[in-house]
Amino acid sequence: MTTTTGSTRHPTDAASPDPRRWWALATVATAQLMIGIDMTIMNIALPSVQRSLELSDPARQWVITIFALGYGGPLLLGGRLSDLIGRRHSLMIGLTGFALASALGGAATGPAMLLTSRALQGIFGALLTPSVLATLAATFPAPAERGKAFGIYGTVMGSSSGLGVVLGGVLNNYLDWRWCLYVHLPIALVAGVGVLYAVRPAPRATGVRVDIAGVLLVTTGLMALVFGFARAESDSWGAASTVGSLTVGVLALAAFVWVQRRVAGPLLPLRVVLDRRRGGSYLAVLSLAMGMFAALFFLTFYLQNVLGYSPVRAGLAFLPLTAGLMVGVRVVSRLLMRVPVRLLLSPGLLTIAAGLVLLGLLRVDSGYWLHVLPVFVLVGLGAGWVLVTANSTATFGAGADTAVAGATVMTSQQIGASLGTALLSTIAGTAAAGHLHAHPTSAAQAAVHGFNVASFGAAAFLCVAALAVFLITGSKNAQR
């Protein structure tokens, strides 16, 4: 692996500090807050959505998965388009499109309309996020202010998870699940006004090309993988639909790498991924997302369907996740420029793994304070620790690759989330069905057994990932 990337900056990046830079931070943090809220608000609303639109158990995960696919698949393209049309324009198009897609979802009359809106939310979010990270990187090039800015950004993103679940509970309980989508409209309006005021136009990058072949291959590959994992629960692992989808996914991604090595303007320049610090960050975020989002998916149904919590109470029960995440963000933001990357990423992953082990020990009659609360705290603490480190590391010194380097972090997160939710839900469903067949018991006990098996598997994976990240970023030349 290489250890450096190009350091060429856009002309505006080298200018004197923007007097409106803190307003710009507030603006882009608000824009990304909208995305962060959406990632958790629908988890709380999902049981109500399932009843309202008569979704089957295998189909319900697609409300989450199709957003992650729509978001994660085109993120790399979003990074390139941000360079092509300018960060300011990308922010405005992304905000407007996301708001309109949210309105469409709120008015959904059936599963097809809802899933279409969720996919569109993801696509416009994929245009928005790379511009958010590129704006932050360009606005705060100085290391001292950069650490503070990413710390504030991480705190906002950390609070988005708690805000999402609480809003989801309140809106779902006192209004309707549809307001979990309508709520994005005022946030988009505020952020749009902020963009017009605080984010100054930057010259468009010259010589930017859109790698159409790369876009098609990476999107096809990722969607095929997630579809294959999702179909395994209903069709079995040996079914032609499952094996065929997984095979197509692997081949398409292999072809994507081959194309990226040969085209003049690659969608993902391999120098970005082959940098040891960035490569370790991407693997850490992918692994984090696989475990974290599956845990949130399981706990949503555990709290509401097993423990009988109302949506509001379930939302409030998620708050320790936010508290843990914010503590992790505050601590790591102070260490970011002084501690080697490997000593930040690997401990964060192990902390999440510890939370997943505790999740694997849950029983039908487990109490919240002794058994569920520690899971939230550990998962949140580890997530905050990893995400701030990865976002800052990915864009640090990336120069002309800043937008695509930041987009790759979010791509890793969303693909991890979609793959984790699909794969671990399949493992949980298969284990639950097998347990129910071998040990006639209640559906709740079988479901919890499935959650246990999937959680232990996710914990083991995160431990292996923590070791891999430590080794990848372990070279002295890979440190700051």
Describe the structure.
It is found in: Cell membrane. It is a multi-pass membrane protein. GO terms for molecular function: transmembrane transporter activity. With 480 residues, the chain is mainly α. The protein has two domains: 18-210 and 267-478, Up-down Bundle (Growth Hormone, Chain: A); 211-266. Helices cover 79% and strands 0% of the residues. It has 19 helices and no strands. It has helices at residues 21-53, 57-60, 62-72, 75-85, 87-106, 111-139, 143-174, 179-182, 184-198, 212-235, 240-260, 270-274, 276-306, 311-317, 319-335, 342-360, 368-395, 402-438, 443-472. Helix 5 runs antiparallel to helix 9 (184-198), helix 7 (143-174) packs antiparallel against helix 14 and helix 7 (143-174) packs antiparallel against helix 15. The longest helix is centred in the C-terminal third of the chain and has 37 residues, at 402-438. The two termini are 16 Å apart.
What keywords describe this structure?
disordered N terminus, MFS_dom, MFS_trans_sf, cell membrane, Growth Hormone, Chain: A, 0% strand
Put simply, the count of helices is 19
Largest pleated sheet: none
| SSE series | HHHHHHHHHHHHHHHHHHH
Question: How many separate structural domains?
Answer: 2
> Percent of residues in helical segments?
over 70%
Strand-pairing-aware structural class = mainly alpha
Q: Write out the CATH superfamily name of the largest domain.
A: MFS general substrate transporter like domains
Question: Quaternary arrangement of the chains shown?
Answer: single chain
Distance between the termini: 16 Å
CATH topology of the largest domain: Growth Hormone, Chain: A
Mean pLDDT over the residues: 81
Radius of gyration: 21 Å
What's the CATH C level of the largest domain? Answer: Mainly Alpha
Beta-strand residue percentage: under 5%
Unreliable stretches (pLDDT < 50, length at least 5) are 1-14
Global morphology: globular
Count of DSSP strands: 0
CATH architectural label of the largest domain:
Up-down Bundle
InterPro entries: MFS, MFS_dom, MFS_trans_sf, Sugar_transporter_CS
Domain Major facilitator superfamily (MFS) profile: 24-477
Keywords: Cell membrane, Membrane, Transmembrane, Transmembrane helix, Transport
GO molecular function: transmembrane transporter activity
